[in-house]
TrEMBL record:
One Pfam family it belongs to: DUF8060
Species in which this protein is naturally found: Methanolobus chelungpuianus
Stated name of the protein: DUF8060 domain-containing protein
Bilayer-spanning residue ranges: 12-35, 55-73
Keywords annotated in UniProt: Membrane, Transmembrane, Transmembrane helix
Domain DUF8060: 9-69
Keyword set includes Membrane: yes
Length: 78
């Protein structure tokens, strides 16, 4: 059972660093988009319907997140 130790090269560290930075920027952009959409709803719709459209928007976000998580978990198990 002689297993070769996998050496981590500086190139791999660089790739993981770039990946981490890109994911951080993506995460920040997603938060900004979420709150910007809240403002768009507040601007485009009459005040009576703002809470309804915010609720629908949040429900769509929750369903989308659950769908993505479900796909990730089932793909990991298979």
């Amino acid at each position: 059972m002689n297993e070769e130790k996998k050496k981590t090269t500086p190139e791999e560290y660089f790739r993981w660093s770039v990946f981490g930075i890109a994911m951080l920027l993506l995460f920040m952009a997603a938060f900004q988009l979420y709150f910007s959409m809240q403002e768009v709803i507040r601007t485009w719709f009459e005040w009576q319907y703002v809470s309804l459209f915010k609720s629908v928007y949040n429900l769509v976000i929750i369903v989308l997140c659950i769908y993505i998580i479900r796909l990730y978990v089932f793909r990991k198990q298979a």
